[in-house]
Amino acid sequence: MTTSKTRSLVSLCFETDSDFTTNLARLIALIDQSPEDAIIVAPEVCLSGFAYERFEEAAAFTATALETLARRVANRLLIFTAITKENNDFYNIAYALHENTILYRQPKAKLFTLGNEHEYFSAGEEKQIAPFLFKGVKIGILICFELRFKALWQQLEGCDIIAVPAQWGKLRSDHFVTLTTALALMNQCYVVASDAANADTSAMSGIITPFGGEIRNNGEESISSHYEERTILSMRRYLNVGIE
Predict the structure, then answer these.
(1) CA–CA separation, 166 and 199 (whole Å)
(2) Span 71-81, average pLDDT
(3) What is the rounded (10 degree) CA torsion for 7, 126, 178, 17?
(4) Closest CA to 76 of 94, 96, 98, 95
(5) What values do phi and psi take at 113, rounded to 5?
(6) Taking every pair of C-alpha atoms in the chain, what is the biggest distance, in angstroms?
(7) How far is CA 220 from CA 5, 42, 173, 205, in A?
(8) Whole-angstrom Cα distance, residue 110 to residue 56?
(9) What sign does the dihedral 144-112-20-69 (CA atoms) show?
(10) Of 76, 109, 165, 209, which residue is 20 to 30 A from 12 by alpha carbon distance?
């Protein structure tokens, strides 16, 4: 008898404070409250916000926070993004942390020009947006604005879970809900979307199944569900569009 893989899924939604230490403490508290086997997705740049006038400080904080979080996450997987300095350039890098290790990292390739990100960040390469394996589960990451590019959906075709850490504008909240649900349906996978709970962001974090069932934030800092491998296999057999 074959046992279906299962794992807890957690999407966070909390306010980004101007104090970096406060943000780290809040993230740690939410990690500690999560199931020990959880895959946790936190909002984009949740440790600092975009902090354009404090990039050096934010990048230095990232370096120490990564060590702290990698130790604290234990058997969980934590996915989030942080301001990172490399070779005198600043990047918005997604990290996947597990058992005191940086399991995967991916720089944001599609910068949001409406928010002037291109004036402060260097962009990663689109080819770096690729699946990685965690305990036999294939995971992909799209960082906020990257969600709008259908070619990137195709690059992550075959993923079991796609994480979407975001700081998504409140005026376009409906777009975030529609696109994350459509991504789950099109790629027949779970989508774990995490947005900040700031005054100017959507706060519409959610967990969406391959069948389009969804749990959305309703004022909580953390929402949870479960990844079930058999749900993906069932959807891909039921509506076979060639995704393996």
Answers:
(1) 14
(2) 97
(3) 70
(4) 98
(5) -70, -30
(6) 57
(7) 27, 13, 17, 10
(8) 22
(9) positive
(10) 109
**Mean pLDDT across the stretch 209-229?**
95
Task: State the Cα–Cα distance between residues 76 and 7, nearest whole angstrom.
Answer: 10
Query: Could you tell me the pTM of the whole model?
Result: 0.97
Span between the terminal Cα atoms of the chain, in Å = 21
Q: Residue 125 corresponds to which tokens in the numbers above?
A: 């390469």
Query: Over the stretch 77-97, which tens digit does the pLDDT of each residue have?
Result: 999 999 999 999 999 999 999
- What is d(CA 118, CA 177) in angstroms, rounded to the nearest whole number? 25
The residue type of 233 is: L
Question: Dihedral of CA 105/119/148/200: which sign?
Answer: positive
**Cβ atoms of residues 93 and 128 within 8 Å:** no
Contact 108, 121 (CB under 8 A): yes
Separation CA 1–CA 140 (nearest Å): 29
